[in-house]
């Protein structure tokens, strides 16, 4: 196939269009409103693991959005009720079989729900999208982050000392990991040792470590340690979704943004402008809600049993 042609076959593009139509029908029947939010903003993401693509607008720095989350939370704080977004998002430095700097994201928020209710709805949506014969046989599994680690490493990731985690990370990766942060050590061990052994079907891993909370609320377990109310969804071994019971405290959110930027500065990454409008919206009152983002391209890859994101989008970055 010549590089002027789309990477995706016409069959794949038809299935892509069908999935987008099915998604919109699903949320229409659930009375969830579709919203269209800006792709370009004066503020970027602070997460050290995510890099924004920057642009110049009238001489000022602007950011292509890595997700619609901040704008959607401003709508939630304005009284929108349940909402979803289906459209483009952008991340720098992400090119590979599972990554493209421009990708299609489905993100939605449910007011008054917790993360477990949202997992149930996500499973229902994926079952319907993957069902072509009227009888979905999608296997759905839920397992806590703690149980994942205990089964593989025989330890509690929430209570293990940093030195123990660094030793395990060094043994899993290389000696250079002996000085890494708690979050990075856990992420390495999960991606290399836990994720490849997850069962087939749709798997929800929930109650992530507090150090990986991102924008999720944190709670204390009955055993007395803290976990983040965050989950990730894996379809046949591939991560497709990331969800939270959302943090609503603007002071804590500002603290996390500042910590992110400190970490970015320490590693030589550019510091990102903090979205003060999001913080203002949270001050005004973000409703109790759960939200999740699902990567449509990866879902389609699994649906069609394809190995490269280039095979499910019209023109990947390699063809632009």
**How large a portion of the residues is in β-strands, by DSSP E?**
15-25%
Largest sheet: 9 strands, mixed
CATH architecture label: 2-Layer Sandwich
Unreliable stretches, pLDDT < 50, 5 or more residues? none
For this structure, what is the CATH homologous superfamily? Bira Bifunctional Protein, Domain 2
Question: What is the tally of beta strands?
Answer: 12
Can you write the helix and strand succession as a string? HEEEEHEEHEHHHEEEEHHEH
Rg from alpha-carbon coordinates: 20 Å
CATH class: Alpha Beta
Shape: globular
Distance linking N and C termini: 15 Å
Features:
320 residues, alpha+beta, BirA Bifunctional Protein, domain 2, 3-stranded antiparallel β-sheet, 36% helix
Describe this protein's structure.
The chain has one domain (10-139, 199-319): Bira Bifunctional Protein, Domain 2 (BirA Bifunctional Protein, domain 2, 2-Layer Sandwich). It contains 9 helices and 12 strands. The chain is α+β, with helices and mostly antiparallel strands and 320 residues long. A hairpin with a 2-residue loop joins strand 3 and strand 4. The strands form 2 sheets. Strands 1, 5, 6, 7, 8, 9, 10, 11 and 12 form a 9-stranded mixed sheet that branches. Strands 2-4-3 form a 3-stranded antiparallel sheet, with no helix packed on it. The model has no long low-confidence stretch (mean pLDDT 94). The chain has helices at residues 10-29, 69-77, 115-130, 145-153, 162-172, 182-194, 250-266, 276-285, 296-304; strands at residues 33-34, 40-41, 53-57, 60-64, 83-90, 102-111, 140-144, 202-209, 218-220, 226-235, 238-245, 289-295. Helix 7 packs antiparallel against helix 8. 36% of the residues lie in helices and 23% in strands. The longest helix is centred in the N-terminal third of the chain and has 20 residues, at 10-29.
């Amino acid at each position: 196939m010549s590089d002027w042609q789309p990477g995706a076959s016409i069959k794949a593009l038809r299935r892509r269009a069908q999935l987008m139509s099915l998604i919109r029908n699903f949320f229409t029947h659930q009375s969830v409103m579709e919203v269209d939010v800006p792709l370009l903003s004066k503020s970027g993401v602070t997460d050290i693991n995510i890099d924004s693509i920057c642009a110049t607008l009238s001489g000022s720095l602007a950011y292509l959005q890595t997700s619609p989350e901040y704008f959607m939370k401003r709508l939630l704080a304005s009284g929108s009720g349940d909402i979803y977004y289906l459209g483009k998002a952008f991340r720098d430095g992400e090119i590979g079989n599972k990554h493209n700097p421009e990708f299609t994201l489905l993100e939605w928020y449910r007011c008054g729900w917790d993360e477990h209710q949202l997992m149930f709805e996500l499973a229902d949506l994926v079952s319907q999208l993957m069902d072509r014969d009227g009888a979905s046989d999608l296997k759905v599994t839920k397992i806590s982050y703690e149980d994942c680690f205990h089964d593989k490493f025989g330890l509690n990731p929430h209570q293990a000392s940093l030195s123990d985690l660094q030793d395990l990370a060094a043994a899993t990766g290389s000696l250079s990991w002996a000085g890494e942060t708690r979050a990075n050590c856990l992420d390495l061990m999960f991606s290399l040792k836990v994720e490849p052994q997850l069962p087939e079907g749709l798997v929800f891993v929930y109650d992530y470590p507090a150090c990986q909370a991102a924008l999720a609320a944190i709670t204390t377990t009955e055993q007395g340690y803290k976990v983040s109310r965050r989950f990730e969804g894996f379809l046949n071994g591939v991560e497709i979704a990331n969800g939270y019971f959302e943090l609503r405290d603007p002071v804590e959110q500002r603290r996390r943004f500042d910590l992110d930027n400190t970490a970015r500065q320490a590693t030589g990454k550019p510091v990102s402008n903090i979205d003060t409008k999001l913080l203002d919206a949270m001050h005004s009152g973000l409703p109790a809600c759960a939200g999740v983002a699902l990567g449509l391209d990866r879902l389609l890859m699994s649906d069609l049993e394809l190995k490269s994101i280039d095979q499910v989008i019209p023109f990947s970055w390699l063809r632009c």
